[in-house]
């Protein structure tokens, strides 16, 4: 349905989108996920023909958006982050106006408008001024506008921004219904939102595609690692030996501690809980535990690590630098190579002259 090939958009020396290649299949809801400034809105504006790419191409239903813009745009319904609503119009007046702008044949306008009103559940407010509607209903009017003409593709840019929890749920339910007749691309930076409604999730960071998977596959890849913050009374060398002999320990890092005390951050292997084994091991070595805290990284933490190109390390001052991280060897087989996450890259400078969301 949509083929994006080596797409780039450059503003001065800054790339808002860099060499993006994606294929969007029919009849699914795609979540376009990424932090603010990642390039989501820029990509959507290029797909809809609002912006021209610096390089690459976009084909919608076989039509190149630059070479055949009118044919390509006929197959797209678009709801930007800020819906282009005329506040002084009623819902009916606005949808009639939008249908004319879309050049929907006169014989089909009334039917198309009624279907959009029914699908967006606007029947109760169709005679009311848009200015007097709640934020949630205004979003519904924007969705109805996008559905006019029964386009094959509907693109929604941050459709739940500014809504209360009840309104967000209602809009999400409406988006799920759109799948019955349309291919939907939903842009958001909220992981829980796209996971709730999407069949496929695309994650973009700094203009590049960094992940593409189903929600289930992405959840498995993004399971947070468990980190133990351990403080004991005793020698570092003895504690290091114990950690290397504990099979459930993935890696660990010593941190500064007062004299006579040893502090370490310990990351567990997936599905392991090493607290009991460490307790008895420390007891055998007569090393009393002064403190022990078990921290589970949230999905949001892992998402930030993925989009910032910094897997496995949080910049919290606890883990030390890469050279201090030690990989615990398995009990059986050869020791694993020393490893650790890279230092986080600094965010790109503020964009100039364009919207890179």
In brief:
With 357 residues, this protein is α/β, with parallel strands linked by helices.
Report on the structure:
This protein is 30% helix and 27% strand. It has 11 helices and 15 strands. It folds into 2 domains: 2-221, Rossmann fold, CATH 3.40.50.300; 226-296 and 310-327, Alpha-Beta Plaits (2-Layer Sandwich), CATH 3.30.70.3100. The protein has a 6-stranded mixed β-sheet with strand order 6-7-8-3-9-10, sandwiched between helices. Strands 14-11-13-12-15 form a 5-stranded antiparallel β-sheet, covered by helices on one side. It has a 4-stranded antiparallel β-sheet with strand order 2-1-4-5. The longest helix has 14 residues, at 106-119.
**In the residues, how many domains can be counted?**
2
- Name the average pLDDT: 82
What spatial form do the alpha-carbon principal axes imply? elongated
CATH superfamily of the largest domain: P-loop containing nucleotide triphosphate hydrolases
CATH class of the largest domain: Alpha Beta
Strand content: 25-35%
Rg, Å, rounded = 26 Å
Write the element-wise H/E pattern from the N-terminal end onward: EEEHEEHEHHHEHEHEEHEHEEHEHE
Structural class: alpha/beta
Q: Could you name the CATH topology of the largest domain?
A: Rossmann fold
List the helices and strands and how they pair.
Blueprint: E1 2-11, E2 14-24, E3 29-33, H1 40-47, E4 55-60, E5 63-64, H2 69-73, E6 76-79, H3 91-101, H4 106-119, H5 135-147, E7 153-157, H6 165-178, E8 183-188, H7 191-197, E9 200-205, E10 208-213, H8 215-221, E11 226-233, H9 236-245, E12 249-255, E13 261-268, H10 275-284, E14 289-296, H11 299-307, E15 325-327
Parallel strand pairs: 3-8, 3-9, 6-7, 7-8
Antiparallel strand pairs: 1-2, 1-4, 4-5, 9-10, 11-13, 11-14, 12-13, 12-15
């Amino acid at each position: 349905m949509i083929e994006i090939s080596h797409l780039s958009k450059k503003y001065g020396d800054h790339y808002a989108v860099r060499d993006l290649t994606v294929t969007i299949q029919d009849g699914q809801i795609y979540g376009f996920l990424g932090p603010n400034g990642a390039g989501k809105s820029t990509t959507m504006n290029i797909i809809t023909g609002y912006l021209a790419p610096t390089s690459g191409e976009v084909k919608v239903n076989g039509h190149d958006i630059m070479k055949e813009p009118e044919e390509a745009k006929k197959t797209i319904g678009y709801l930007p982050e800020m819906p282009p609503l005329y506040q002084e119009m009623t819902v009916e007046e606005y949808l009639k106006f939008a249908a004319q702008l879309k050049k929907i044949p006169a014989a089909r306008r009334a039917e198309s408008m009624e279907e959009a009103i029914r699908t967006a559940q606007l029947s109760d407010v169709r005679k009311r001024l848009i200015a007097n509607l709640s934020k949630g209903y205004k979003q519904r009017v924007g969705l109805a506008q996008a559905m006019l003409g029964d386009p094959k593709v509907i693109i929604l840019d941050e459709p739940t921004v500014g809504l209360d929890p009840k309104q967000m749920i209602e809009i999400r339910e409406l988006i799920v219904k759109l799948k019955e007749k349309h291919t939907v691309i939903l842009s958001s930076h909220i992981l829980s939102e796209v996971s709730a409604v999407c069949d496929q999730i695309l994650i973009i960071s700094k203009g590049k595609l960094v992940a593409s998977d189903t929600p289930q596959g992405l959840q498995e890849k993004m399971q947070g690692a468990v980190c133990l913050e351990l403080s004991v009374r005793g020698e570092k060398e003895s504690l290091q030996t114990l950690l290397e002999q504990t099979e459930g320990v993935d890696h660990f890092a010593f941190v500064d501690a007062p004299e006579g005390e040893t502090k370490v951050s310990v990351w567990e292997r997936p599905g392991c809980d090493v607290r009991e084994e460490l307790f008895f091991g420390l007891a055998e070595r007569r090393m009393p535990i002064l403190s022990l805290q078990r921290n589970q990284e949230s999905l949001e933490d892992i998402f930030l690590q993925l989009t910032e190109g910094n897997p496995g390390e949080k910049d919290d001052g606890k883990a030390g630098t890469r050279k201090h991280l030690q990989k615990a060897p398995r009990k059986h087989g050869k020791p694993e190579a020393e490893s650790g996450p890279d230092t986080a890259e600094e965010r790109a400078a503020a964009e100039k002259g364009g919207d890179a969301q």
